[in-house]
Predict the 3D structure of the following.
Amino acid sequence: MQARDLFETLSGNVYPGRGIMLGRSADGANAVIAYFIMGRSENSRNRVFVTDGDGIRTQAFDESKVTDPSLIIYAPVRVLGGTTIVTNGDQTDTIYEGFLHGKTMGQALRTRTFEPDAPNYTPRISGVLEMVDGGFFYRLSILKSDDGDPSQCLRYSYFYDAPKAGEGRLIHTYVGDGSPLPSYEGDPARVTFEGDIDAFTEKLWNSLNADNRVSLFVRYIPVDGGEAQTRIVNRHEGH
């Protein structure tokens, strides 16, 4: 798979939906995690990311405008020791609890399917990044309908060992805008990027469609065991 520039890839897609990018910084010193959410409806756009311990959760910006919290309020990021879990829904908790009971990511997700939001049947995308012995590896997963047919759940998982500097893998929920929204197709995209956490966060946020972007989370975790850095950007100022 040919590598593509992360920022150009996203700027060319008006509505990738929710997305996860895991990789390694260009200087090789950090594991990089990015998670973004976008929205078309007022309910979807009425959200912000807030810190919750070592992770984050979504929160309504204006409680009076919430019409259905079931698929928009969840913890996208949770941390268990040296492992960071990032997903686009409450399957973050499913994976976290599974790990506590000795299950693998795949075993935990066997209990879940795509989201029950017909006719879109939004895929559930998940990532796990584990810091080990001065390095790290990561996994990605997508659970999706069979080309819009909800009678079958297609389950794909990917494992990436010894990530290369300046490279990552990007997966998101939709190919682009549409009605119904077309589910992501193919393997996670191989992408390239550079910059420290502030430069990376700014470029990634600016690459998302200005009308549809809602929130962005970025974390740089030093492979030498230093303190992680986190950035959060919200469409609604003041958070």
